[in-house]
Design brief:
mainly alpha; 1 helix; single chain
């Protein structure tokens, strides 16, 4: 029976050591769980900050894109206005060229008419001289 008591004491000692070991493991696991929860909370906060920063960056990029689109629209508008102005100037220049050609034709015709009139004036002057000569000889 003594042997049985010794064996039971030994078993109790083993059980007590196992219990102590298990309690130490529970304490260690609680510490690890607490550390994991703190790390998880910290990671979540860091992730939230990262997401907020990315949202700010996205908004900034959207604003920049809107600004670029606005600038491009203004440039397109100005370029179209300039193109329209140049087209109008070209049309005006073509119209002026047509008018100039008409004036040149008119001037050429006027010169032709002037030459004809000079010939007629010279012919009239010649006739007037002839008539004067006739009149002088008869008077």
């Amino acid at each position: 029976e003594l042997e049985s008591l010794r064996q039971e004491a030994k078993d109790l000692g083993h059980a007590k050591r196992e219990k102590d070991d298990l309690e130490k493991m529970v304490v260690t696991l609680k510490k690890e769980l607490k550390y994991a929860q703190e790390w998880n909370e910290k990671s979540v906060m860091e992730y939230e900050v990262l997401v907020q920063n990315q949202m700010k960056e996205i908004q900034s990029l959207k604003n920049e894109l809107a600004s670029i689109k606005y600038d491009m629209a203004n440039r397109d508008k100005k370029a179209q206005e300039e193109l329209d102005q140049r087209c109008k100037e070209k049309e005006d220049a073509e119209e002026l060229k047509k008018e100039l050609d008409m004036v040149k034709k008119s001037l050429y015709q006027t010169e032709v008419d002037a030459k004809k009139l000079r010939r007629q004036v010279m012919l009239c002057n010649s006739r007037v001289r002839d008539w004067r000569a006739i009149c002088l000889t008869h008077s």
